[in-house]
Every structure is written in structure tokens, then in C-alpha cells.
Amino acid sequence: MYREVPLEGHFEYTEYFHMPWLWNTNIKRVLMIGLGGGSTQRSFQHYYTNVMVDTVELDPAVVSVAKEFFRVKETPMHRIQTNDGRIFLRRSTNIYDVIIMDAYATTRYGSSVPAHLTTQEFFTLARDHLTTNGVLAYNIIGQMQGWNESFVGSMFRTIRWVFPQVYLFPAEDSQNVVLVATRTAVRFDAARVEKEGAALMRSKVVSLPLFPTRLKAFENTPPTAAARAPVLTDARSGVERLLR
Questions:
Q1: Which of 56, 193, 198, 241 is most buried, judged by most C-beta within 10 A?
Q2: 0.90 surpassed by pTM
Q3: What is the mean pLDDT of residues 18-30?
Q4: Which of 117, 224, 243 has the alpha carbon at shortest distance from 175?
């Protein structure tokens, strides 16, 4: 984060968390699992003042650092809970328009998604907490082809097992891919994404400056590795094996 311009300096991939507006133009309530430095939360508070955001962060130290150094604020429109994301969803009765996943842990293999947030059972739980036109956005550290491609393929296939449509937004300046899954079965192509994105900008529903540029990253074909990747389940997650 640039201290003088706190909306700038973050990773490119966080701007793909604005893509759910393409499929749901009436977003009112968002759940974000994972806080980090709060780039997405600050952005949503700035651009979408009528959207309520619930953040769930496992580590209270992360919450303290985000508040002290990254200008993350709790307000009536942004509430932070210290909890495990899956436990929170299991106990919650809330229904969300968007669920954003950016939760990571450190293992002996480096940064890793907690295994219990990668499985078919977890995605079923998440889907059941979304509105009928709700959207899930999930950040994965990896590449479409190359580093961690097996993990990207497996996550795509697992999410696709639960959601009727899954799209990909690979970042150019980092090794991140944001998967966007929709409850609607209507399939979008690049032309539809460009059209809907232009309409959102004209109506000022979305005013993120680089939104038109980020639309160009859209892909609607499965990653190559998905053809041979396993579906992850609670019984057989295999996240660490895929990351090896």
C-alpha cells in the first residue's frame, strides 16, 4: 500500500475481486474470508459505499496489523470476525451476494490454501450461502500453465463440480489466478463480458479505473491441467501433494 494513496500499490489480482459485478449488478452484501492487508476491503469501502462487507480472519495478529498499519477500519458497513472461514459459514445463517476467498497459510512448501477451504464439501457450503445469482471469487497462487498448474486445474475442477459456470482471470504481474464461479448457468464469453463491463462503467455502478483493462484477462475455457486433475474432497484433499 502506498501510504499517501492507500488505494494503490496492491497486487493486481485483488482487482479481479470486482468482477462479480458482471454477473450480479445488485450486490449488497459480501463475505470475504481472509484479511491480509485489507486491500480489497478498503477498495470496496471506497467504491461501493452501500455494500456491507463481512470479513472473517483466522489470525487476530493479522487483524491488529491491518488496522494499525494498513488503515483497515471497522464500520457499520465493514465488520471483522476472528474465526475460521468454514466454521463461520457452517454456523452462519447469512446469505451473501458475493463470497471472496483470499485465505492463505504458510506450510513447508510455502504459501498454501488451508485444505478444508478447497474441497467439494466447502464449495457446497459456500454455494448454499449465496443468493440465486450469487458469485464466488477465489484467489489461487499459481499459473494456468507452469508453476502450480496442477493445483489450479484441481481447484477449477472441484469448483466446477459444485457451480454451473467457472471463469478464470490470470494476473499478469504475479503468479495468481482468480477463479470466478456463478450460480447462474448462463455462459458468458469475452464479448458478453466486454459489453456488461462497459455498461457497468457507463452507469457508474463500477468506477474502478482499471476495470476495463482487467476485463481483458477473462478466460472461459478450463486450464489444461483440469483434464487430469483430481476433485478435492474432505476425505482426499491432497493440497500439499499438488503443491509439491
A1: 56
A2: yes
A3: 98
A4: 243
